[in-house]
Amino acid sequence: MPTEGEPISVSLHVGNFEGPEFDGPLTVTFHPTGSPSQQTKTLTRDGVNWHTQFTPDQPGPWDLEVRYRGTHLKVITARFSVASSPLPRGMGWVLILVGAGTALALGLRNVLRRVKSSGSTPGATETPPPPAAPSTPEAGSVPTPPADPPSGQ
């Protein structure tokens, strides 16, 4: 759908049923419906077709009129709607940057909270110390006898 402020490409082809091929020119008029202001272009043939671009400056219904003379004057009209621009051009980029900045800030905040709550660096795992083996027998405990030597000696 055409949008306010965005260029609209128009490509026209005029053919003949008999006689020489039509070489132009074409006159194309583009204007808001009911408005006296209009954009008019006279086009010459570019290859097989005629091409031009218009940029609507306001939303609403618009008229496109194509006029040319073959054996007699012919006028073709088309009416279409132009949608309003959802955002100014720069505003879209501003919203993308704000969204990316917010995502980055929230991500950093989450990482910092994890670091603070674990008390260590991110990714480090805490392992409990191994149980300490008794080095000397305590008073009142019975020492265990050494294992029997292997038989056959």
UniProtKB/TrEMBL annotation:
Residues spanning the membrane: 90-108
Comp. bias intervals (Pro residues): 143-153
Region described as Disordered: spans on this chain: 116-153
Keywords: Membrane, Transmembrane, Transmembrane helix
Comp. bias intervals (Low complexity): 117-126
Source organism superkingdom: Bacteria
The name this protein goes by in its record: YtkA-like domain-containing protein
Native source species: Myxococcus virescens
